[in-house]
Amino acid sequence: MSVRQPAEWDAHSAVWSAWPSHADLWLEDLEPARAEVTALFKAIADVDAGSGRPRGEALKILASGDEAVASARQALAGTGAEIIPAAFGDIWLRDTAPIFVTGGTTLEAACFRFNGWGGKYVLVGDDGVAPFVAKRAGVKAHINDWVLEGGSIDVDGLGTALTTRQCLLNPNRNANLTQAEIEANLKHSLGIEKLIWLGDGLLNDHTDGHIDNIARFIAPGVVVCMEPTGADDPNHDALKAIIADLKAATDVNGRKLDVHTIPSAGRLDDEEGEPVPASFMNFYIGNTTVVVPVYGTKTDEAAVKAIGKLFRGRTTVGLPANHILTGGGSFHCITQQQPLV
Asked: Do 59 and 17 touch, CB atoms closer than 8 A?
């Protein structure tokens, strides 16, 4: 039976994520990161003030250790969140959780090998998250014996996907697979029939160019990406190349893509003066809200407003994500939607 990965804007029954749990990883950013994910989760749940019922989707939040479980329960009281004790390395469930797919009228979980983004961050427990979530969700798990991270692909739900050569063809993932073999695997596992290959991702992105930091489908045949901001934008050339490649691309049905652009965050440095991969593209599309990470830059407001115009049926909000970013990602990186079937 063939399967397909639904688009993120299709209806969800739940979102899976995780609570920042390990003080030795987050250090002084632990509590600020918890505050940021709390705001994200509340926006996704979208609790009605009158009835007290979530209008968005159910929250399934993994937490590791008694202190983290208690902290999450206290912070998310009133959201209907299910706090699930679990062993994991860190919160990046876009990459460690399964990718949910539909097969006819059934929901299934495509589980892939996870190697810490090419061996950079191998943490105890991360390689067990996918089968754990699949079992907890009560769906059949399909084990795929090759490396794939959810953030490395973005789909339109109809058979077309975006990705980057920097990530999917990186020898630190699947050195034994050719491009053609990777494309065949994606068709078998996720129902992807047309793969649009972009080049490089953001500078200093330890994921080696995840697509969810640079370009996203927002509807079939419609994508959004970023224009460089400022003369010192560290990703100027890469962003210009992405725009050009997308405008030249066609989807599985042979139609040219409708390409929208928003401003990038520009140059944002860490404490050592190195550019960080801050991206407005790392938004999460919930049932009722689109949550955009913002970083205190001069383009925050313009980017959120531009994304909001692309999602007329949802409320678009911008929420701070600077402390989550110290861990290596943002809102999309820590979420994995469970489609409604």
From this structure: yes
* Closest to 103 measured CA to CA, from 129, 139, 75: 139
For 232-249, the pLDDT digits (tens) are 999 999 999 999 999 999
Residue 111 annotated to the active site: no
Count: domains in the chain:
1
Token code pair at residue 341: 């079937």
169 φ, ψ (degrees, to nearest 5): -100, 10
> Annotated catalytic residue: which of 111, 167, 225, 333?
333
Q: How many residues comprise the chain?
A: 341
Residue that the structure tokens 């938004």 belong to: 283
The pLDDT value given to residue 1: 58
Tokens 């692909």, residue located: 153
Q: pTM of this prediction?
A: 0.97
Residue 5 lies in a domain: no
Tokens 């079939």, located at residue: 220
Query: How far is C-alpha 9 from the chain's CA centre?
Result: 13
Coil, helix or strand at residue 54:
strand
* Residue 211 belongs to some domain of the structure: yes
Neighbours of 140 (CB within 10 A): 12
Task: Kindly state whether residue 6 falls inside one of the protein's structural domains.
Answer: no
Task: With beta carbons less than 8 A apart as the criterion, state whether 8 and 285 touch.
Answer: yes
Helix (H) or strand (E) holding 69: helix 66-75
CATH number, domain of 226, equals 3.75.10.10
Sheet holding 258-263, edge to edge: 215-219, 222-227, 258-263
How many angstroms separate the CA atoms of 296 and 316, rounded?
17
Give the pLDDT confidence of 55-80 residue by residue, as tens digits: 999 999 999 999 999 999 999 999 99
Tell me the average pLDDT across 287-311.
98
Q: Which two tokens stand for residue 248?
A: 């030249």
Tell me, yes or no, whether 2 lies in a domain.
no
- Name the residue with tokens 């020898």: 171
What is the span of the domain harbouring residue 260?
12-339
